[in-house]
# Entry
Amino acid sequence: MLRFLAGRLAQILVTFFLFLTVVFLLFQAMPGDYTKQFIMNPKIPPEARKALQERLGLTGSVWDQYVHYIRNVFTGNLGVSFQHYPREVWDIIKERLPRTAVLFLVADLVAFALGFPLGKHIAWRRGRLSDYAVTVTGVLFYTVFTPLLAIVLLYVFSNVLGWFRSGGFLTPSLWLRPPVPPQTVFLLLTATVAGLLALWGGGFLVTRGIGHPRPRAWARRALVLLGLALAAGAWWQSGLGPYAWDIVWHMVLPVLAVTLISFGGTMLLMRDSMLEVIREDYITTARAKGLPDKVVRDRHAARTALLPTVTNFTIGLGFIVSGGIVTETMFSWKGMGLTYLEAVLQQDFPLAMGCLIFTGILVLLLHLVVDVLYAFLDPRISY
# Structure
């Protein structure tokens, strides 16, 4: 395994280097000279332009700019944003990334929790009315035009029912004199979600000693409910509960939109994968041995059928920047997707390049995560 990881890390490094080269050439091929736009930007004071030119290597030839660009990326120096001068690109990414990560991670986890068991069950009972109904619903959500879905959700739940806000990150009137900045509250919310997920995952390890599956499931649920109660009590005692709830309130509609679309893809992929697996000889052999249908379905068929679903789920997280452009724009959610779109429209090239670089890093690392997960999920694979 260690030799495999070392080889994959070497491949990732080479691929990342090639990706950086393509990004650099892409911006060099754009009409005009983005280096001159950087130098002549009116938001940057004249006295700071020379220092920034030398820092980013914009004074030399294209080869000198490329060398400085590669060096700056590997040292974490992504430059200064045009729009948000004098803020560093890395500071903006650190601010916007948690918003997009939480939005898409929560939505994808909910979609996976719903789509995986549902796709498994309808594939096992294929041909019934429930199979057709769920499949049509999944196709509808998976192929729906994302802006249209967002408009429908906003019209129904915001304009007609008035349950949620029409967009944005928070309610301005509530945050006139907050005890802490909104970003701090959001980071605390992120830590809370991460803690609950860790508690849920740890519950599988803690309850392994319980023999019967039903008490084991109830013990895991009780552990998660205890964590929720403790988290709610901590937020209430801190006095930040109303501020946290305001952010969560604004998250509901974008999370719902991403969940519906992701649910359709996850459910359909799991269904198709199960239909292929249940035709295998070892499934026929397991049934011939007299094993219960639930055991054959869950322990033999579903575990193998899970592999492409896990791959799709994990790799999909790597494209949260590009995938969040439409959703975050429709709901005015200040995340990485909306940041990247605004950077391109405003010709904020350092920020746009920073978003692309981060996307490349995330996708490459998640490919490595998928390779490692395969070794644990499929006993036929060994490294």
The longest helix spans residues 241-277. The chain has a mean pLDDT of 78. The radius of gyration is 24 Å. DSSP finds 15 helices and no strands in the chain.
